[in-house]
Specification:
Layout: H1 14-18, H2 26-35, E1 48-49, E2 67-69, H3 75-78, E3 85-89, E4 94-100, E5 105-110, E6 115-120, E7 124-130, E8 138-140, E9 146-150, E10 155-159, E11 165-169, E12 171-172, E13 175-176, E14 179-185, E15 191-196, E16 217-222, E17 228-235, E18 238-243, E19 249-254, E20 259-265, E21 271-279, E22 291-293, E23 299-303, E24 306-310, E25 316-321, E26 326-332, E27 338-343, E28 346-351
Antiparallel strand pairs: 1-7, 2-25, 3-28, 4-5, 5-6, 6-7, 8-9, 9-10, 10-11, 12-13, 14-15, 15-16, 16-17, 18-19, 19-20, 20-21, 22-23, 23-24, 24-25, 26-27, 27-28
């Protein structure tokens, strides 16, 4: 079994955690979106880099994260008292977390705040890109370039090593994407993403062009040859996606249906044998959104109350209780045993016992 070193000094002050419970519902997030002043220019013109450096670091306190045990073996993953630290606060709609292993920094987006942020341990947070065209999911490609689901830009774009922005996909069969949501990269260089329509209608997240051209909300793939291929089309509102550690299974969740589906992945990158892997349950704030796998094949998905953890057979192992409405998650730090979680207004970090699947 792959094990991580013991948890570092990663804890959360109780008062900081409690402050966000009053603002954890989706209704409140939409209210904040209506009142938030957004950038008028939704294109990349005028984009700036590296602004607003802050020296604030992780907030440490004396509280551990609550967990719900569905099976007796969940402590193999979470331990008895996993820590929870606040990395950042004051967001309007946190999303898109990803660890940059080359530069040893953590990145996330504030969709409504129209900003991509970076945080470096021991240094603090700083603006990486603003405006970001309300960017959403982020990952890295095999060459270490930040690759982004351009929510309101309606494109898949990439940050080059020289700081320039390149659009790598924008249409399927001549029609604009809806609003690319989450994104991953396969070992052959293929880029997969979900394309739901929320970026055309959610206040505070929309761009200039709101005309929907596609009749489906689907999963797409940009092949190594630069072609856009349809991967999964029978989804209602596709959101998070991830591969199993060996890339033999593609997991895609559906926010509207509250389910996670699994698909067998063929050698050419296509998928088959779609089936329901797990149905999320719970009445607390949270929906099927961000999703990742650890190296043992367990699946982690945002849902009611925080992060739901399932084994490779779809059996619920337990929940990591996250204050507020969790939106996404990402593995990070040198050993990939830290789990970063974005919520509407905060970024948290905990430590687990099994490392996650690394990002390129």
């Amino acid at each position: 079994m792959l094990q991580c070193r013991s948890a570092q000094s990663l804890t959360l002050a109780r008062n900081a955690a409690r402050r966000i419970f009053c603002a954890r519902s989706r209704a409140k997030a939409k209210c904040f979106a209506r009142n938030r002043r957004t950038e008028e220019n939704s294109d990349f013109t005028g984009m700036t880099f590296g602004l607003g450096l802050s020296t604030s670091d992780v907030r440490k306190g004396a509280s551990d994260m609550d967990i719900d045990l569905a099976t007796s073996g969940f402590d193999r993953i979470a331990g008895a008292d996993p820590p929870l630290d606040t990395v950042a606060h004051g967001l309007t709609f946190g999303e898109g977390p990803v660890w940059d292993r080359r530069n040893k920094r953590f990145l996330w987006v504030d969709i409504i705040g129209d900003t991509i942020w970076q945080w470096t341990p021991g240094v603090g947070k700083a603006v990486l890109i603003h405006p970001s065209s309300h960017a959403n999911g982020m990952t890295f490609d095999r060459e270490g370039r930040l690759t982004v689901a351009g929510w309101s830009a309606r494109t898949i774009w990439r940050l080059e090593k020289d700081g320039s922005i390149v659009t790598i996909a924008s249409r399927y069969r001549g029609k604009k994407f809806n609003s690319p949501n989450d994104i991953i990269v396969r070992s052959d260089g293929s880029v997969y993403w979900t394309d739901s329509a929320g970026g055309l209608v959610i206040p505070g997240m929309v761009g200039e062009d709101l005309q929907r051209q596609l009749d489906i909300q689907a999963v797409y793939r940009l092949t190594p040859r630069g072609e856009v291929a349809l991967v999964v089309e029978d989804t209602v509102y596709p959101n998070g996606l991830c591969f199993s550690p060996d890339e033999s299974v593609l997991y895609v969740n559906d926010t509207r249906l509250g389910i996670i589906r699994a698909f067998d992945v063929d050698a050419d990158g296509g998928v088959r044998n779609g089936r329901v892997f797990h149905t999320l349950t719970g009445s607390e704030p949270g929906v099927a959104d961000g999703m990742k796998c650890d190296r043992e094949g367990n699946v982690y998905c945002t849902g009611p109350g925080g992060i739901h953890v399932m084994d490779r057979n779809g059996r619920l192992l337990g929940r990591l209780r996250i204050p507020g409405h969790a939106t996404n998650l990402a593995w990070g730090d040198d050993d990939w045993c830290s789990l970063y979680v974005t919520t509407y207004h905060f970024v948290f970090r905990t430590r687990l016992k099994i490392p996650g699947v690394p990002v390129w």
